[in-house]
Design a protein that fits this description.
CATH topology: Growth Hormone, Chain: A
CATH superfamily: MFS general substrate transporter like domains
Largest sheet: none
Number of domains: 1
Oligomer: single chain
């Protein structure tokens, strides 16, 4: 489908930067929580395992709500849904600071996940509408780079600042930043509204469109890989804070510094990875990204020096940056007249996988140990890597020619 025209290339690039900033803030908030699980457990006088439920409490509702937001966006327009969702994110994140128990914290995280999930998926849809497929790698790289940057700085800054300002101030500060992002986005509301038009049709047709996304082998394999790959990455990352505390005896600041490398590759090189995907084909890069993820998890199995473990965290992030953005690029070409649904389903798979991954790893960890959990998750990623050579061989490069 030919993307809808925008007023100018300059406006398009400016909108991209604003969307990247909003994406950064949302992912900063999502990933500042896992590294401070030990501190939250102490604050609420519960076990780290019980506290760990605050991660899937946010991620799983986030993923589920994207299906609804995708439907609504296609029906009543992207701008209305995106603005309402960003407003809900800002308000609910700030209100999380009022939690007085782990049950209240879980409730606020659940509501925030439901409210926040209409921003990033629709930002990805906008990229698919205003950039041609042959040039989507770079802008998608910017958005996923912002996600990676949010992961990196959220996991690091959250862990480093918490001992000094407290976890409540962290949530209030991010809520204020979210409100600021909404104000900055307001001047682009006409551009966003004009880039995509509501899709007419019955609700039955809208729901049938979800089924059609699974009828093609390309859609089936892409969505399945998004789900399983996100289970792997979330499962490993969510518990890295506890891993560094138990294995190396690190405190909050040390954990934050050890996790600093997570997100840095995508933050620095996301657009370059996107350009490479456009030029050489996603089928060539995906097996490499999946293999790097498996190798990173395997590197954490043995009693490696702290520096090597920190480098493995960076490699784990690079594996993510070379897979999920590339899958999203494929999804932008699957939606046809209903791009919101296609990307909503992608983010549903992504965040459902995030939530399931943290739960599954936590359960294996509770019953066994870190070594067994890491070995199991790395083996799953190896299988994905081997399968991807065959299943994504047709995702070849399509150099852009003006």
């Amino acid at each position: 489908m030919t993307p809808a025209p925008v007023d100018s290339n300059q406006q398009r690039e400016a909108l991209l930067r604003v969307l990247a900033a909003a994406t950064f803030i949302i992912f900063f908030q999502a990933f500042m929580v896992a590294p401070i699980i030990p501190q939250l457990a102490a604050a609420f006088a519960v076990s780290p395992h019980e506290t760990g439920f605050i991660v899937p409490a946010y991620l799983i509702p986030y993923g589920a709500a994207t299906l609804v937001y995708g439907l609504l966006a296609d029906r009543i327009g992207i701008w209305r849904i995106m603005a309402a969702s960003l407003c809900a994110f800002a308000l609910l994140t700030a209100l999380t600071a009022t939690a007085q128990s782990i049950a209240q914290m879980v409730s606020w995280r659940l509501l925030t996940g439901l409210g926040a999930s209409g921003v990033v998926p629709l930002a990805l849809v906008l990229i698919g509408r205003v950039f041609p497929y042959e040039r989507r790698g770079r802008p998608l790289g910017w958005l996923f780079g912002a996600m990676a940057g949010g992961m990196a700085f959220g996991s690091t800054v959250g862990a480093v600042l918490e001992p000094y300002i407290g976890w409540r101030a962290l949530f209030i500060g991010v809520g204020i930043a979210g409100a600021g992002a909404l104000l900055v986005l307001l001047p682009y509301r006409n551009l966003i509204a004009g880039a995509t038009q509501p899709v007419q049709g019955s609700w039955k047709a809208l729901f049938q469109a979800y089924g059609s996304l699974f009828t093609s082998p390309r859609g089936q394999r892409t969505y399945l890989f998004v789900l399983v790959n996100s289970i792997f990455h979330s499962g490993v990352f969510t518990w890295l804070g506890l891993y560094f505390e138990r294995r190396y005896g690190l405190g909050p600041v040390g954990i934050g510094l050890a996790l600093l490398g997570y997100g840095v590759p995508g933050f620095l090189f996301g657009p370059l990875i996107g350009r490479a995907a456009d030029r050489f084909g996603r089928g060539r890069l995906l097996p490499l990204g999946l293999g790097l993820g498996a190798l990173a998890a395997a590197a954490l199995l043995s009693n490696t020096p702290l520096l090597v473990a920190a480098l493995a965290v960076t490699m784990l992030s690079l594996g993510y940056d070379m897979t999920q953005p590339l899958f999203a690029g494929i999804v932008t070409s699957l939606g046809g007249q209903r791009p919101g649904q296609a990307m909503g389903l992608n983010v549903f798979m992504l965040f459902t996988g995030f939530g399931l991954g943290s739960l599954l790893f936590g359960e294996v960890l509770r019953m066994l140990n870190f070594g067994t959990a890491l070995a199991f998750f790395s083996m799953v990623e190896v299988v994905l890597c081997l399968l991807s050579f065959w299943l994504f061989r047709t995702e070849v490069g399509t150099p852009y020619r003006p």
